[in-house]
Each structure stands twice: as structure tokens, then as C-alpha cells.
Amino acid sequence: MVGGLACIILLLLAFVVKHKPYQIIEATLVVMAIKFAVSPHAPLPAYIAVGFQGLLAFLLLGLIGRNWLTCVLFASLAMLESALQKFLLATLLYGKSLWQAIDAMALGIAKEFNLPQDFSASFWLISIYSGIYFFWGIFLGSKGYFLPQYLEEIYSKLPKIMEADTAWVQPEKKKKKLPKYLGLAIMLAFITFSFWLTEGSFGKGVYVLLRTISILLALYFLVIPILTFLLHKLLSKAKEGNLFKAVSLQMQATAIQSKAAWKYAGRQKKGLLKIWFYMEVMLALNLYGEAS
With DSSP H G I counted as helix, E B as strand and the rest as coil, what are the percentages for the chain, rounded to 5? Predict the structure, then answer.
């Protein structure tokens, strides 16, 4: 759901920027910076997915041009990457033992019920799951291509929703404590020791557990902090200017509009349709509203 909404937003962004494709990259970096600020310990794949989708949108929708084919190609590839990324992360964390266990379990069930046993359950699991994401991407791309006209029609029927008029306040910077070098040294030693082990050292279960813990520690306490530092350095000039101020004001305006849009959607639709229509109203407001 979240990945699909991100594709839709990038398709709409490509419609807005048109002859300024570099703004897609700029918007992607701003989104990643805000994500770092709000949730610095979010999983690394979330940032990889955002970066990949932004780069793919820049190449297909920005440089080549926004048409039905590039919209469908972009969304299908973005969703396919989102699906395959989950399997790559699972392989990184648990190794090939995970897929061997799935195959063994499926073969055991097949043997129990006298079913054919010449198949790979892990292969079909990955293929079916990825196929669903791929075809979902085709639908999103086709829908996203025609969405601006549909949202314009919705916006034309909306009652006047007041724009936010709130002053931007520079958030106070929290002082960060220096890391404890002893703890960092112990963590690095543990990671090194875990990768130095082999499956036969302590048994397969302990090996997989230590390997998984090591990778999680490396991701959360080494990779993500380093990427955070590099991204903040990259966007330091933009932060000194008006870009982050404009984003902050837009977020405040969106928060105020959101309440009015939710009430309006509740008068028009009920149940799950209310949520869907609310999302359409918010997209229309941000695409064609005065604050946009």
C-alpha cells in the first residue's frame, strides 16, 4: 500500500515538474532527509526503496518523458524491486538456510499427501509474490497516467478549504551524546567474530542467530548513522535556504487541510470508500490547491 502510494505520488510529481526533471531527484533527497529526521532507525531497505524509486522516476519519467508506457514501466519496475528487496534482505539475514527450510517443509507436506515432489517451493513463492507486485505496478502505472485529469475534476467540485497560515518555527537542535567507544568496540568485535564463524562452529541454529544479530547491529548502528551523516551533509546548503522552510510550511498546511478533507470525505462516502475518497481529495488539494 505504502509503496504503491509512493509510485502514485512520483507519477504526479513528474506531471507537475515536466521540463525540470532534476526536481524529482531533489524531492527524493528531501523525502529521505525528512525520513531520517523523523525515524532515524527505520530499516535500511526503506531508504533504498525511496532512492531507487526516485532515481527510476528521474530516468524514465523525467529524462525520457511522461507517457503511458513510461508510467507503466516505472510503476511495474518499482513494485518489482520492492518485492525482490524483501527476499534479498531475508537472504542477507538468514542465508540460504531459510530457502532450504521452506523447500524441505514443502517436500515433507507433499510426501505426506502423496503429491509430486519435483518442485521448489521457495522458487514458486518468490515468483508468485513478485508477479503479484509486478502486475499491481502495471495497474498503478496505468491509473497514475490518467490520474491528474481525474483529480482536477475532483478539485473543481471541492468546497473552499482554507489554506494554512502558520509561521514556520525552526526546531531546536538536540545535543547528541558522544558514543561510548567501549560499547562500539565490543559491538564491532562481536560482528567480526560472528562473520568469522562457520556453520560447524556452534551448530547451525546458533550460527544463524549470531549472523542475524550481527547484520542487524551493523545496519542500525553503523550503516544508517553513516548514511544519515552523508545525507545531512549533502542537503546542508538546501537547509540553509528556503527549501526546508517551504517543505515545513507545506506539511503544516497539509495537516490542517487533512482534517477538513476527512470531514468532507465522511459526508460523501462511508466505510472503506471514505478512506479512498479522502486520499483522492488530499492528492487533489496538493496537486491543484493554492498551497501547492
Answer: 80, 0, 20
